[in-house]
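Section 5.1 Outputs to date
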Amino acid sequence: MEWNAPMLWWLATGGLVAAELATGTFYLLMLALGCVAGALAAHAGLGATGQVATAAVLGAACTAGWHFKRARSPRSAPAESNRDVNIDIGETLYVDVWADDGSARVPYRGATWTVRHAGPGTPAPGQHVIVGVQGNHLRVAPAAPH
């Protein structure tokens, strides 16, 4: 089997895709696109300099484009208060009595949970909404009146 330039570019592409799968770094896929461009340039008959330049330009452009796209995107909420990560965020529960330390024990989803006050002011009994989860404690704030 002959090791020609296009084959080397395709092997580099595969190596970058495998590394991306192992690390989860999406930027490696952008560099793999650069290697695809290098392979296509090799198939088109460009010399080694043209292949490397094509791969470098497209890989850098894809990487920069992805970086700027991510920079403009809104950041997701931290996992402890992100409804996409924890389905309890936004759910309501009723707190009968608060302890002096701002915690309470409440029944929720078939178990007794420790909740901690996360809202403004002094905690008061009543309807509360879950705004976060820290370990095995629910952070709650007073529910808005309807």
